[in-house]
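Report of the visiting student (M.T.), summer placement. My assignment was to run the structure pipeline on a short list of targets and document each run. The first record concerns Integral membrane plasmid transfer protein.
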Amino acid sequence: MTTFTAPASTIDKNLDTAFASVASEIGRTDGKASLLLAFNGAVLAGLASVADKDLPPVTKVFGALAVLALGTAAVLLLLVVRPRLRGDDRASFPHWARLDEDEIRSCMDGDTRAARIRVLSTLAVRKFTHLRRAVDLSLVALTLLLAAAGGSLI
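After the run finished, the structure tokens were exported:
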């Protein structure tokens, strides 16, 4: 079986493109998480304003479940925007922050783009997973709020 190895210039271009792409995806998750945090916070504030009202029991149950779902979604969203400061990967700024200038120069002796892409990709997947779960929980909460509104009409 014959394998093809791309020329160094193609590999360099692809590494640069991949690194920029992953860094962009991380920025997208942070922006989306911020918007969803604001949305969930507004809904929770609205729910807090009716917490002391005399509502039917079914409405209170669905409302409480919605608050639980929104609260859990908010925690997941906070995990998305929470800074990752582990330095054990040897390919990110938290690791470099622990080094002196000579150690930094020595670890820059080789091409670290592939390792940095791996680290950032792992981070991006974790952020997107939390973001996806938070969106799902927010949708569940909205469904529960619709059920609560229907219960208050009974």
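The mean pLDDT is 90. The two ends are 72 Å apart (CA to CA). I thank the supervising group for their guidance throughout the placement.
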